[in-house]
Write a structure and sequence with these properties.
alpha/beta; 7-stranded mixed β-sheet
């Protein structure tokens, strides 16, 4: 399937699931995020990118400690749900964009989250390279990979091939995905 067809199909899927997404995935998403946050500290100057933010699960976990958070998703309908979640979060902004073509200058973010994103992308390598383009050299990346989509070796290889060095990793049996915290190598 050509890349644009896969992306359009994923967008339509998340548009249809937007209203019930939280009910279906809150436990799994919170578990992944909490696992990531065991290895990440935030400060008031942190500029965070939440790529594929969906309905905004990450925001409640970090809004009080991060400087500013930008949530990006291709689905307008999940962003409507995220907007409801962020009403009392003045340090969060939302942008509708494709994860492979994010509308930001180079070297902007110093923390990047990609939770439940890579398995939906036709070329995960391209997606990671786009995250890196918009990030500073010392950026911390928190990335998940669905176990049904990636083998352990395949996921680690993807990270290494994009020159990310894994500093924390969890493939806990309770999680449906691998959780990696990485830096540029």
């Amino acid at each position: 399937m050509p890349n644009w067809k896969q992306k359009r199909s994923n967008k339509q899927h998340y548009d249809m699931q937007a209203a019930i997404y939280d009910l279906q995935y809150v436990g799994e998403q919170d578990n992944k995020i909490e696992t990531m946050l065991e290895s990440i500290d935030f400060g008031p100057k942190d500029l965070v990118l939440d790529l594929g933010c969906g309905t905004g699960f990450l925001f409640k976990h970090i809004t009080e400690n991060a400087g500013f958070i930008v949530g990006v998703d291709v689905s307008q309908k999940v962003l409507v749900q995220a907007k409801k979640r962020t009403k009392k979060m003045p340090n969060v902004d939302l942008v509708c964009a494709d994860a492979d073509n994010i509308p930001f200058v180079d070297n902007l973010f110093n923390k990047v989250f990609a939770v439940t994103v890579l398995q939906n992308m036709p070329e995960p390598t391209k997606t990671i390279l786009e995250m890196k383009r918009a990030s500073k050299a010392e950026t911390l990346f928190a990335i998940t990979g669905l176990k049904k989509k990636f083998s352990l070796e395949g996921f680690i290889s993807l990270l290494k091939n994009t020159k990310l060095k894994v500093v924390a990793f969890n493939d806990n049996e309770q999680l449906k995905g691998y959780v990696a915290v990485c830096v540029n190598s």
